[in-house]
Amino acid sequence: MLTDRFEADYLLETPIDPARAAETMAGEQSSGTFVAIPGETPELKSRAAARVVALDILERDVPGRSLPSNVPSPPHERITRARVTLSWPLANIGPSLPNLLATVAGNLFELKSASGLRILDIRLPAAFAAAYPGPRFGIAGTRRLAGVEGRPLIGTIIKPSVGLGPAATAALVDELCGAGIDFIKDDELQSDGPACPFDQRVAAVMAVIERHADRTGRKPMFAFNLTGDLDQMRRRHDTLLAHGATCLMASLNSVGLVGMIELGRFAQLPIHAHRNGWGYLSRHPMLGWSYVAWQKLWRLAGADHMHVNGLSNKFSETDDSVIASARECLTPMFADKPCTVMPVFSSGQTVRQAHGTYAALGSTDLLMTAGGGVMAHPDGVAAGVRSLREAWAAAIAGIPLAEHARTHPELGRALEIAA
Amino acid sequence: MLTDRFEADYLLETPIDPARAAETMAGEQSSGTFVAIPGETPELKSRAAARVVALDILERDVPGRSLPSNVPSPPHERITRARVTLSWPLANIGPSLPNLLATVAGNLFELKSASGLRILDIRLPAAFAAAYPGPRFGIAGTRRLAGVEGRPLIGTIIKPSVGLGPAATAALVDELCGAGIDFIKDDELQSDGPACPFDQRVAAVMAVIERHADRTGRKPMFAFNLTGDLDQMRRRHDTLLAHGATCLMASLNSVGLVGMIELGRFAQLPIHAHRNGWGYLSRHPMLGWSYVAWQKLWRLAGADHMHVNGLSNKFSETDDSVIASARECLTPMFADKPCTVMPVFSSGQTVRQAHGTYAALGSTDLLMTAGGGVMAHPDGVAAGVRSLREAWAAAIAGIPLAEHARTHPELGRALEIAA
């Protein structure tokens, strides 16, 4: 266990000697610079410099550079890929997430000596666990508020994403609650625009939800998107509390790290963290961020639910990548402070993904949000919700989907359309 | 001029019909989704849907996809590149920068139908100018505080980046102020680590700077890196005010948008905005962000100085890209609220970049920070600073560098090393 240092792993592609490229990274992100300078004494280096603690060659003679530079490739350039681990003294930055970011993911990705660079993981000493709240509700707190145990939370998203006013949103929520849904979320495009003001939406939706809660004894969880400037988020949060809401949603890349840390400190509700924009951070396999590294920042800042995409999703991500992300959300970060969060599966999710998701994850601690999978059931929304629960019951019990469908008509009918 | 809509331009690469790919983008980022849904009525669409307002084909039969997907390329796939402009109703989000981000740069970059996507520019209605502060000091305010008119501010960075304590930092600042420097900044790796506590560094450095200001009547500007959690940044900001500091620095990608908006609201000093991490947002030419689009967010949030890299830099960026970024910083965003900021040139800057920078930019409203260009002058730091000023005087007067060097020995000596 690290105590006074922190580490980061990288996938590095370089047209120069990989050992030299790794040393350049370590130098650039600590006491070194492009040229030798008199102030960088051996004593200072031993105190403050980052160290290359591992370097494993993965691939030699890569056919071409992944990323361009202002210096074109010479003929017969030899390009190598390696996994590199750097280690820094905690004394350089202290347990500060924003300064961690500038150190492990600062002026590195533009280096000429890297024709590809992706941060794969970070490992932090316990001082970070002491400095940040982590998820205040996490899996257990979310289950308690939603009243769902022993199976995933089945959810959906308000669609159309934008364009419905408060009353139309509440009418849709009424239908969904009547259908037995566990969880509903605003779309990330809907926060507090004049066409659907936040306060009016919350009032209209929570009136409906409270009515269903009175009827069933269980309050469906609605994640209201409060993304905005800090004063707006504070005000919207208080509106949620005043109306008995049980979840808030924020877009991580819109709010940013310092805003999310602040939200994590004042929020008295679970934080449903949306990762929209993730593609620009990750879509090229030799650039940017691995979700394994990235999600640690937000868990420590206080996120309770983290989006991970879904199996057979409508986007470009592979199933392996989705499952790696989801597993990481359930993997403890610190011995005394696990900071585990609920992975949120979404995008094209239907009854057909339950078995594969359960087999790959080995857990029901997740939230599955389905759009068409709920709304497009031929027998209506209630049948859509029931079919998803049935699919999960079958997955958990180890019963093949088609077999379970024979005795569960809603599931059978769902399979007719989710081809 | 836009009043009730906002727009974004994209570079799109797609293996499908580009018109259909553009419509998918518009749908996904407004009222549409992957499947047709009953709630998306023609009336709702006309009110809330994004529109494709321009589509120009740039390149047909691109040899291969720039970015991978979970569906491999079929043989003989026809890939096209196009410039696409989308337009949204302001009523969807209101004048909110965080929600703008989720809309123009949200779940777009992961679309299967895009094998490349880069946001090139955004255009905002005046409501955004009214909702956000913009730079409070900008070019004129920075010049007034630094006491520099008619030429660029010549600056440098504390190096080694980390490892110097408060006293050693102050000793270096003393030497630099004695040499006549205009501007000094902390490195982005140095904020408030235990090895160089912020408050002690500010106290030690400002004592030195005030002594030089008393001597010369001009206070060199020091940008103290206060990057941290919000409460820490507030406290550090107050420390700066108490010690008579004239600039603060923050790392944009560490603080994030909501944190920067909040900093912009309370800061009573110019904000020197560092873009470390920019590489992961921009390094692949068919993914992520153009600086032209990205810098508008931060200018509106309140940044006064924006890093743009430098000509002949040590990183991978081309000179054309650097100049396009710098020009944009000097281009007004709104008729009544230009939000222009000082571009900061850095990385490998020496006397050799003055002429090219001035020729390309046509302005002296910039800050040039040189490391080796100041510190490595054979006759010392004062000669280094003087040589840079002489290079700029020659550039402004239209005198070739070599000619000016014959009558200005510090410049001549600088040319001997900056080969």
UniProtKB/TrEMBL annotation, chains A, B:
Record bears the keyword Magnesium: yes
UniProt-listed InterPro entries: RuBisCO (IPR033966), RuBisCo_large_chain_AS (IPR020878), RuBisCO_lsu_C (IPR000685), RuBisCO_lsu_C_sf (IPR036376), RuBisCO_lsu_fd_N (IPR017443), RuBisCO_lsu_N_sf (IPR036422)
Cofactor names: Mg(2+)
UniProt-recorded name of the protein: Ribulose-bisphosphate carboxylase large subunit family protein
PROSITE patterns: RUBISCO_LARGE
Pfam assignment, any one: RuBisCO_large
UniProt cross-references to Gene3D superfamilies, sorted A to Z: Ribulose bisphosphate carboxylase, large subunit, C-terminal domain, RuBisCO large subunit, N-terminal domain
Domain Ribulose bisphosphate carboxylase large subunit C-terminal: from-to ranges: 138-416
Protein family: Belongs to the RuBisCO large chain family.
Residue stretches making up the Ribulose bisphosphate carboxylase large subunit ferrodoxin-like N-terminal domain: 16-128
Keywords: Magnesium, Metal-binding
Coiled coil, from the record: none
Domain of life of the organism encoding this protein: Bacteria
CDD domains: RLP_NonPhot
